[in-house]
Amino acid sequence: MTESVRQGINNALLMRSRSVKLMKDEEVDNVEVKKRMKLKLQLFSTLRETEDEVKSIKKLNNGRLMILFFNAFIAMVGLLLSIVISETCRYGYIPTSQEMAQGMLNPLDDPSTGCRDKPRRIVILQCLISLSTAVLASTIIYGNYKHYKMLKAMKSFVLTRQTMSVEFFEQIKEFKAFYWNEMILFDIREIVLCCLVHPFPWFFKTITVEQMNRTSIYQFESLIVIFMFLRLWHIAKLLLHLFYRFYFEESIFVLGNSYDLVKMFEQKPYISHVLMFKTFLRCHPVKCISTWFLCLLFVAAYCIRIAESPSNYLHSVYFWNQVALSHPHYNVVLTIRQRRDMAVKDAQESVRRLTFAVDMYPSSHFGRLICIVVMLLGILLVSITTAIMTTKLSLTQNETELLKYSELQTFKKAAVIASVKFLQQIYRTNRGKQKKDPILLNKLRRALFKTAYLYNIHLCAQESPARSGRSASEAARRKRKGCGGTGRLQQIMDRQQELLEWKATVDSKMEALQGSLDEILSLLKARDRQPITFRTEISSSHVSPSAGAAGEGAEGGQASGHAVKTRRRHSSKPKTISTELLSILPSIDYSLSRTRSNSKSRDEDPDMAKLRERLRRQSLKPSPTAWRSSEEMKSQLRGFSSMSSFANV
């Protein structure tokens, strides 16, 4: 009786210990699953936040582009209406007393000229211009606010992915101070010069200027148009923004990941319109110079028409007289006509043109010599100005690196598009949706090879300086380490760097482990409710390369004996899921052993050793019956998932 009671108590205690052990294993399993799910949720939330931030930045950029389009349209409408008012209200040529004695009409005698009677249509046009100016000023302020929000979002995007220290808010404050100190002044100048200058409603004023032997009379509505040509700045701003957007930013937004966006946004808040102009001049010099020349030609011609029409009849009649800037009377573009047999009168005329003198020119030798010296000094002055402008227009180091990176993304986008077109053509041909066209296929293949070759060249050109910089930094670090007297701070920094490198190695191994576990679960789900045979002809070296000869001995002999029986029993059956699972397990165990050997601590963890031994014995132990579901396989592999806690060692 006593023996039976004792045996019953022992059996109960044994069952309880087994149940407690299973509960502990389940708790550990649940904790590890929760940790993995938490990491996945954090990763997904980070990716979702990155995607949302990129979408918000791109939305702000698109909104700013639409505002620039609207500003350019409103500015051109106001400028054209001002030109209409100028042509209607200008007096034209004012004749002298001798010309009036000869019968030439004076426009001052006609009360309808010069808008002195304040016609209604001119007042309506002035009101429309004032309304468009108010709308333009408000859209400029709103566009600058959008620009500020976009730059702030870019700065926050960069800082949150570089550091999460207390300096984050300080750097945001520095950026706000930079914007309010630098950009706001620029915005105020833009509003004052390129927006507020316009003919005011019900304001008509005549301006009289006394010149040599004549009087020039201007209308305020005509003179104000000269300053309203500054509204062309909105057109230039729109063109520069479009160029920079479609050449650089679009490829970054389409193909860029978080790293690409950080590299792009790191310099974006400090990019000004000067860099955009430099880039446009660098990529399209002929278009830039020709557009600049034509714009200056017509703007200068109309300004000369307004300024010279009261004193020159030719300027007051036809607009094309101002366009012919090489005419000697206009003194805009001066030419020297060299002839072999030049007479004294032609020489005097050439000197008159060079010295900007209409009625006075030097006639003595010393005077001509002085004029030549002055011309040479003028050439030197122009050369110095050109050199200064060239220096100002040259790219800085940060701008050069940014443009190289942006161009690399552009070539990457072209390579991706070419590969997609090539694969699309192959897919349509194989599916029978399109006839086989070898010429088109070869053309797409050549385009793919060309874009990939260009991308590879630019990628190698960009990575070679980075490699040299990394090697130089490593050499400097080794040199500092060999000096000896680096101090406690340097040792702490080196130790911290080593820990970061070890953490990166462990993270990479854990990613490989997670991928292997996902593969195991996918195989289990695919072969669920199927008989699974267990392979027994496996040695300890197949399970873990780091286990050595620990599995040889009695277990090995028993395993070999059962292997013969099992091989005879299942020789005709196909390869099942157990073979695939056991082919994955050695690689996982091997990666863990390599991670353990690369870690800083060389001591063997007893829990890990017991876990590895239990896994090896389970793999060598033959199964008497076939498993009927994947749940039993999961229970055998339950302890295997606890190896993910190795990353926290």
Automatic annotation (TrEMBL):
Membrane spanning residue stretches: 65-85, 122-145, 216-236, 286-307, 366-388
Residue ranges with Basic residues bias: 564-573
Residue ranges with Basic and acidic residues bias: 600-612
Family annotation (InterPro entries): K_chnl_Ca-activ_SK (IPR015449)
Gene Ontology molecular function, alphabetical: small conductance calcium-activated potassium channel activity
Bias type Polar residues, positions: 638-649
Composition skew (Gly residues), residue ranges: 550-559
Keywords in alphabetical order: Membrane, Transmembrane, Transmembrane helix
Region (Disordered): 468-488, 535-578, 593-649
GO cellular component: membrane
Protein name in UniProt: Uncharacterized protein
Organism of derivation: Guillardia theta (strain CCMP2712) (Cryptophyte)
